Amino acid sequence: MKLTIIGLPKSGKTTIFNALTMGNAEVAAYSSSLTTNIGVAKVPDVRVTDLASIYHPKKTTFAEVNYTDVAGSPKTLGTGKEAGSELLNYLTTADALIQVVRVFLDEDIPHPEGSVEPERDMATLDLELVLSDMAIIERRLKKLELTLKRAKTSEREGYLKEQSLLQNIQRKLEQETPIREQGLSQRELKSLSNYQFLTAKPMLIILNIGENQIAQAENMESQVTSTHPKFTVVAIPGKLEMELEQLNEDEAKEFRESMGLGIPALNRIITTSYYSLGLISFFTTGPDEVKAWTISKGTTAPQAAGKIHSDIERGFIRAEVISYDDLKSCGNLAEARKRGTLRKEGREYIVHDGDIINFLFHV
Ligand SMILES: Nc1nc2c(ncn2[C@@H]2O[C@H](COP(=O)(O)OP(=O)(O)OP(=O)(O)O)[C@@H](O)[C@H]2O)c(=O)[nH]1
Ligand SMILES: [Mg+2]
Question: What is the pTM of this model?
Answer without folding.
Answer: 0.85
